[in-house]
Design goal:
Layout lengths: L1 H10 L63 H7 L6 H8 L33 E2 L2 E2 L3 E6 L1 H4 L11 H11 L6 E5 L16 H10 L4 E7 L2 H5 L17 H17 L3 E5 L12 H16 L5 E3 L1 H5 L21 H9 L9
Parallel strand pairs: 3-4, 3-5, 5-6, 6-7
Antiparallel strand pairs: 1-2
Helix pairs in contact: 5-11, 6-8, 8-9
Length: 348
């Protein structure tokens, strides 16, 4: 053997062998599986695409490499991946968002992503429905402790928003009623007890709530009665409360509501003569603000809460309608406030 190798080297130089290439077939060695290039029926090679076996294939089942896998359950998935954004199925997916929708990149055997209502732009969101009927819009009651229900029965559901929801239910006008009242809250300024000013929290507590259609605004009495109390003023540099400042604050709420397509209902400020914070100057401011709410037409509708708890019009809540502080109504007073709301004005 040594002699033969030497003789071969004398007669013909031997070049070094080429390095093996993984895509070529070598004697005694099969090419790697990922390098296989199956032939089409016409005999030409086609570009290799790694096959993915979908879930649900029977064990031991093999498909011919030159034929596609024909499964009925695979067909809608393959068509869904080729749909374009303008395709009819995409428009159907936006309307029926509560069903799973196949998206680009979905792989057989994996759960497809789901398109939810909050993923779609606001102007393209499909209407939420309860069966065949669209869900009703919500009513938000916005204000201070008179809306929060100070003086009502604990867990008695006898605040005026609760009684309003009860009236809507009994008359077949069922719709959600949200209570956005905060005790000691003011319209113009923040305070340690009342939190953020009504102007600052209106968007968060009212307009950002789902499916809001109407808001009832009853706020401003704390700005009036606490303006003369030095202990309640958080900043001495704050200008004094005037009817003009309160009216401008109400106008800002109305503009914000109409920008979001929400109807704003104004409620007159209830009397508080006899309360600790009552002053003749504050009573004059309350009268000017109520006059503007009732006659300006700025609000879409008006609810006269002042007349509801003061039927005689003497600027004082009767003894049988307040809890003893001449400011906060009792359950009977809240019932009178709820009864003063015309149910037609809260519908949209």
């Amino acid at each position: 053997m040594v002699r033969d190798l030497g003789r071969a080297g004398l007669h013909q130089p031997v070049a070094p062998p080429d390095p093996p290439r993984p895509h070529r077939r070598h004697p005694g060695q099969n090419p790697p599986f990922q390098r296989l290039r199956p032939h089409t029926p016409s005999g030409h090679r086609r570009r290799h695409r790694p096959h993915r076996r979908p879930s649900g294939r029977a064990a031991g089942h093999h498909a011919h490499p030159s034929l596609p896998w024909l499964h009925l359950r695979d067909r809608p998935r393959r068509r869904a991946r080729r749909q374009r954004p303008g395709h009819a199925a995409h428009r159907t997916a936006r309307r029926a968002h509560h069903h799973p929708v196949l998206q680009r990149g979905h792989r057989p055997g994996h759960l497809p992503p789901v398109v939810h209502d909050h993923h779609l732009p606001r102007r393209r969101r499909p209407p939420l429905r309860l069966g065949r009927h669209p869900l009703p819009h919500a009513v938000v009651t916005f204000g201070d402790s008179l809306t929060d229900g100070f003086g009502a029965t604990i867990d008695g559901h006898d605040r005026y928003p609760d009684l309003l929801a009860e009236r809507l239910l009994t008359t077949g006008r069922t719709r959600p009623v949200l209570n956005a009242g905060i005790g000691s809250n003011k319209l113009l300024t923040a305070s340690p007890l009342g939190g953020d000013a009504g102007l600052a929290r209106f968007t968060r507590d009212v307009l950002d709530q789902p499916r809001v259609g109407t808001v009832i605004v009853l706020i401003g009495i704390n700005d009036i009665q606490q303006s003369a109390d030095p202990a309640s003023r958080t900043d001495t540099r704050t200008p004094p409360i005037t009817a003009r400042r309160l009216i401008d604050g109400h106008r800002a709420l109305i503009r914000a509501a109409r920008t979001r397509g929400v109807r704003a209902i104004g409620a007159t400020l209830t009397p508080y003569r006899g309360a600790a914070g009552w002053t003749p100057a504050g009573e004059a401011i309350r009268g000017q603000v109520n006059q503007w709410i009732s006659t300006s037409g700025a609000y879409d509708a008006v609810v006269d809460f002042a007349r509801a708890v003061d039927p005689d019009g003497n600027g004082r809540i009767p003894e049988e309608l307040h809890i003893g502080d001449h400011l906060h109504p009792n359950p009977a007073g809240y019932r009178a406030m709820a009864d003063a709301i015309e149910l037609a004005v809260v519908e949209q």
